[in-house]
Amino acid sequence: MRKTILAFAILVAPALLFAQGAKQDNKPDYKIFTGQYERGSAEQQEAFKLFFGADDVQNKFDFYFHWYNVAHEYSHCILDFYGKSVGSVQEEILANKFAVKYWKSVGFDEELARLKVLLEERLSTFQNPVPEDTTFEEWYSGIWGTSKLMDVSVYGYLQFKSVLIAMEDEGDLEAWFAAVGIDGFTCPKDYKSGKYPISAGYAVKYLNDLQSFFKKAEFKVPNVGLDLTDNPMTHFSQKMQ
């Protein structure tokens, strides 16, 4: 079976270097691969200081990638599983809408508010690369898959802006499933995800709680595992053979 890359690695990581622990070995349908800031090279860590700012960058990295982004990557798996993947910037916005709506559903309004403040502050330091005569989606669709997208500031603006766009979207998670054409989902009542320390080692706990959420909803979703990697530039999901 051909492997399908659902979301590319940030800045195109040259290889995956697997860390021990935080693995699930029950033959998942998909896997999320997510890198660790503390295991990166000095050059890689400097790149993320452009993303998040030099102050408390480790915590900001883990907050974004090992909490928020777990749900983002999981949505790529759901979209592919149901044959609803659309690719390009449109899917990035869909994935962020899913993540925002999921985290709201399981009691993370305070964390989402904190994330919004962080992203707005970081975007204020980025130059908007989108020309005035085109839209955000049109411009990023036009450079999708090109080397231009790999510029740190261009890619950072895409990710952070698309999260903020998602935060403006009304409607709940049920509305998200209806909008992408997946039937049968009803949000379970009174389900709250655990809140764990912000670090790479707890990303798998957030993933497990996410899958428990859908189990309680009695809604069919793919089984997704998670591997930590040594490369902090690596954040994507992949269909397994």
Provide a brief overview of the structure.
The chain is α+β, with helices and mostly antiparallel strands and 241 residues long. 48% of the residues lie in helices and 8% in strands. The chain has helices at residues 42-52, 57-81, 88-105, 109-123, 136-143, 152-167, 173-180, 203-216; strands at 4-5, 30-35, 224-229, 235-239.
Structure characterization notes:
The structure is a single chain. With 241 residues, the chain is α+β, with helices and mostly antiparallel strands. It has one domain. Helix content is 48%, strand content 8%. The longest helix is centred in the N-terminal third of the chain and has 25 residues, at 57-81.
What descriptive keywords fit this protein?
241 residues; alpha+beta; 4-stranded mixed sheet; 8 helices; 48% helix; disordered N terminus
- Helix and strand pattern: EEHHHHHHHHEE
Which structural class best describes the helix and strand composition?
alpha+beta
Report the portion of residues in β strands.
Answer: 5-15%
Please, how many domains?
1
Number of strands: 4
Tell the overall outline.
globular
Whole-number radius of gyration?
A: 17 Å
Show unreliable segments.
Answer: 1-25
* Biggest sheet layout: 4 strands, mixed
State the helical fraction: 40-55%
| Integer average pLDDT | 89
Strand order, largest beta sheet = 1-4-2-3
Work out the helix count.
8
Distance between the termini: 5 Å
